[in-house]
Amino acid sequence: MAKSPRSTQTKKGAPAGNAPPETAAEAARPPNEAVAPLADDRAHYEGNLAALAALIPSAETPLKGNLQLAALAALRVAAFCRDPAVRAEFAKLALVKLFDLATLDALEGAARAAIYAHHRYRLTSGSLSTAKVSPALDLASGEVRDRMFSCAEHNLSDDPEMLKLIDIIRPGTGYIDRANDLMGLADIYRARPAVVRLDGKMFRATDEADARKHAADLFEAFGLGLQTGGTDWYEQQHRTWVNLATLYAPIARWGEALFAERADVDALFPDLRGASRAPWGSVSRTESDDEKKPADPPANPTG
Predict the structure, then answer these.
(1) CA–CA dist 46, 114 (Å, integer)
(2) Cα 177 to chain centroid, rounded
(3) Residue 231: beta bridge partners?
(4) Alpha-carbon 60 to chain mean position
(5) Among candidates 69, 70, 81, 86, which has minimal Cα distance to 106?
(6) Mean pLDDT across the chain, nearest whole number?
(7) Range name among 8-12, 55-59, 167-171, 245-249 with the lowest pLDDT average
(8) Dist. CA 98–CA 32, nearest whole Å
(9) How far is CA 37 from the centre of its chain?
(10) What is the sign, positive or negative, of the torsion defined by CA atoms of 148, 153, 157, 162?
């Protein structure tokens, strides 16, 4: 039976134990080949509407990178897991009730729903570079963000749950990231009020409320929340991200355990947040997704 996810560190090398060798289909696939979107992305989105409506949006912090890139990475994983030998390994986990094969079956649809929602959001909102942020809002929101971040980082460094959120907020650049950071920091302040208020230098009693107001003003400046046909596509793309990330987490966790001996295990089950920040053809990026966007992924049919 496969070892528990992340339970041990195994030296990566030739496949051993129950990890199947590289499949013929995988061996024939060129490196970094993108899984081309199909024309039925809209159908996948509509098929996921019930799940999207039922989920809790706050289950995942907003994605700072390009949702389409994250979804394409998930599609590659879904394609890899369709191989009978790979699926058989997950099926062994399902037999002992450690994994639900329905999660594998749902991954492709969730990824394609995310691609469609992101595409519709981009069509609705237009170019984010046209936003007008006043100097006063720029200054005030930046000061509150930096002060709250310093307070949270200094006082919650021994709180694993909050530190995870702080680490997600840390790399933010640009106004959209700042707005999401402010919302995240306000949530941290609300979750740990007794701790953050102990910081006599950085804590301000009004910062939580100010953070939410500044975030709302920044979102408004960028036209986020625009609706077409009654659909808030900014909200929907976030919901498709939450759905995708929730489904992907156990697949990646167990996939890393099942194929730990393979040298390319990190590429087989990549971190979706990391994948979302990489421009086409690259493994990393340094520019903010809401200020200097990489070239859009291949054209996605609209409906």
Answers:
(1) 11
(2) 13
(3) 228
(4) 8
(5) 81
(6) 77
(7) 8-12
(8) 31
(9) 19
(10) positive
CB 180 within 8 A of CB 215: yes
- The residues that bridge with 262 in the sheet, in sequence order, are 13
* Burial degree of 26 (CB within 10 A; 0-12, 13-18, 19+): middle
Q: Name the one residue in this structure whose structure tokens are 């997950």.
A: 90
Beta strands 231-232; 227-228: pairing state = antiparallel
The closest alpha carbon to 302, from 131, 133, 120, 179, belongs to: 120
The candidate with the shortest Cα–Cα distance to 50, out of 132, 106, 99, 8, is 106
Distance set, CA 182 to CA 44, 97, 170 (Å): 32, 40, 12
Of 181, 190, 231, whose CA–CA distance to 208 is shortest?
190
Rounded CA-CA distance 4/216 in Å is 42
Share of the chain residues as helix, strand and coil, in percent rounded to the nearest 5: 60, 0, 40
Q: Residue 102: pLDDT band by 50, 70, 90 thresholds?
A: very high
Q: Tens of pLDDT along 29-43?
A: 433 444 444 457 888
Using DSSP's 3-state secondary structure scheme, residue 228 falls into: strand
Q: pLDDT (tens digit, 9 = 90+) per residue, 157-207? A: 899 888 888 887 876 667 877 888 898 899 899 999 999 999 999 999 999
Report residue 98 as tokens. 């450690």
